[in-house]
Amino acid sequence: MENWITGIMNDFGYIGVFLLIAIENLFPPIPSEVILTFGGFMTTYSDMSVVGVVIASTLGSIVGAIALYYVGYLVDVNRMERFVGKYGRFLQLTPSDVTKTYSWFTKYGVWAVFLCRMVPLLRSLISVPAGSTRMNFGLFMVLTTVGSLIWNIALVLIGAAVGASWETIVSYMDTYSNIVYALIALTGLGVLVFIFKRKKKAN
Predict the structure, then answer these.
(1) Could you tell me the end-to-end alpha-carbon distance of the chain, in angstroms, rounded to an integer?
(2) Maximum Cα–Cα distance for the chain, whole Å?
(3) Residues near 128 by Cβ (< 8 Å), separated by ≥ 6?
(4) How many whole angstroms separate alpha carbon 196 and alpha carbon 174?
(5) How many Cβ atoms from other residues are within 10 Å of residue 72's Cβ?
(6) CA neighbor of 31 nearest in space, from 175, 174, 184
(7) DSSP letter, residue 92
(8) Residue 166 has what DSSP assignment?
(9) Where are the membrane-spanning stretches (predicted)?
(10) Would you write out the chain's pLDDT as a tens digit for each of its 203 residues?
């Protein structure tokens, strides 16, 4: 995948950066770390600039986030409650669990959207509950833009600074991503265990 990403960026420049980041938001397995650090490296040997790469990548982030926001918008709390009411027994979930989750996001969603823009995998997925809870679109755009800018600027500058050693940074970011994935998995497992035990006590 790394060769495919770098090939597109070498062939299409800023447009390649924009498209890859937009796709990365829709398909999180595509690593933004590779796109951004290699984009930074490209500024050391091509006519591409750090500012140009940051702008292209941020526009791509915004487009991808908007697409996922509207995916979430189509799956509102009422639809999710109906779905859980029908199939939630397999995971020991009830419609009230959905209501509580949406209430939590409504309360803390601002921080969640902003901070998750700098966390692998979550930086993409966070757009779905934002749309599903009908977060104010203007606020969503501001949080997405600022959070994405911070992430993009940091990695592009690192890529430009290390130059041909950009792959070394990617290896470090892979470690960071793996830690994040493990924490997400453990958190999800913990939540399921908690819900299961609570339901068991209730019965």
Answers:
(1) 49
(2) 67
(3) 68, 69, 71, 72, 75
(4) 33
(5) 20
(6) 174
(7) T
(8) H
(9) 12-30, 50-71, 138-166, 178-196
(10) 667 888 888 889 999 999 999 998 888 667 788 889 888 989 998 899 999 999 999 999 999 999 989 988 888 777 776 766 776 555 556 666 667 667 777 787 888 889 888 877 778 788 888 888 888 999 999 999 999 999 999 999 988 888 776 767 666 666 656 666 566 566 655 555 555 666 566 55
Contact predicate 177/30, CB 8 Å: no
Tokens of 179: 């830690």
Question: Scanning the structure block, which residue is given the tokens 């409650």?
Answer: 81
Give the model's pLDDT for residue 20: 93
Q: What integer pLDDT is reported at residue 142 of this predicted model?
A: 95
Closest CA to 60 of 26, 118, 25, 18: 18
State the amino acid at position 77 in one-letter form. V
Q: What is the CA radius of gyration of the chain?
A: 19
CA distances from residue 138 to 44, 45, 115, 130, 180 in whole angstroms, order as listed: 36, 38, 17, 12, 28
Does the CA dihedral 14-16-22-28 come out positive or negative? negative
